């Protein structure tokens, strides 16, 4: 009875030691076995692993690709047009031993603080380098700039045991204090362009109107000239016809001219004539046989 009293606690303690010496490494992580703060082994393969109870500890690190958003960073490209750049990076812990030695007990938080400083420095260095303008950053060439930032950040993050997979620029904006000035400048430029376009349009309209007026004058002049020619030809033809017709009977021609004169003189309000009775105007009115008979 006394022997079983001692055996049971021993068994419990033994089982506790056995369970505390076994740990599981997940496939999404890597583990370090530490003994008094010193690295004793690295567990990178998933499955069961062992450690010395009470003496050794296990520190786990995420083996997946992680992301880090950087705070907005103000950069000054070569054209002195300041921009605020918002970026993010994707990285992973490539060497857990080197990572532990670099960041110590600070872990991932300390590593991200140091990685953030590296990214900000490289963003400023690349985007502020010679030949890089704000238009370059805002154009399709930004892909090459992001590749340069990624390469330089990867080189400087390697001593931390980190592998920078990619760096991307999310947003590129103007500083708040420059937005109003930039907006006013853009509006002034658009107004100047609109004024130039209106001036060019008015100039073109003037040319079109001048050409149209010239064409109208030419057409009217040509039409008048042709009309005068036709009218002159018609008058000549009329006179010829009159001459031929009246040449056949001169007395009838005189009679017709007298009737025409009577018609023009006695129309409208001009119906009163003061003429001597023996005037030639009444030759055909006074004679029943015509002018020749009156003359006799």
Descriptive notes:
Among the domains are: 2-62, no CATH class; 66-173, Band 7 domain (Tetrahydropterin Synthase, Chain A, 2-Layer Sandwich); 261-295, no CATH class. The chain contains 9 helices and 9 strands. The chain has helices at residues 2-20, 96-103, 107-127, 134-138, 142-157, 176-247, 250-265, 283-286, 291-295; strands at residues 22-25, 29-35, 38-43, 47-50, 56-62, 66-69, 73-75, 83-93, 162-173. It has 296 residues and is an alpha+beta fold. The strands form 3 sheets. Strands 6, 7, 8 and 9 form a 4-stranded antiparallel sheet that branches. Strands 3-2-5 form a 3-stranded antiparallel sheet, with no helix packed on it. A two-stranded antiparallel ribbon has the order 1-4.
Number of helices, counting only DSSP H or I runs of 4 residues or more: 9
User: What pattern of helices and strands is seen along the backbone?
Assistant: HEEEEEEEEHHHHEHHHH
Classify the secondary structure makeup into a structural class. alpha+beta
Topology-level CATH name of the domain at 66-173: Tetrahydropterin Synthase, Chain A
Task: Determine and state the CATH class of the domain at 66-173.
Answer: Alpha Beta
Strand content: 15-25%
Quaternary organisation of the protein chains = single chain
Got a strand count?
9
Span from first to last CA? 194 Å
CATH architecture of the domain at 66-173: 2-Layer Sandwich
- Largest pleated sheet: 4 strands, antiparallel
Helix content: 55-70%
Average of per-residue pLDDT values: 81
The CATH homology group name of the domain at 66-173: Band 7 domain
Poorly predicted residue ranges: 292-296
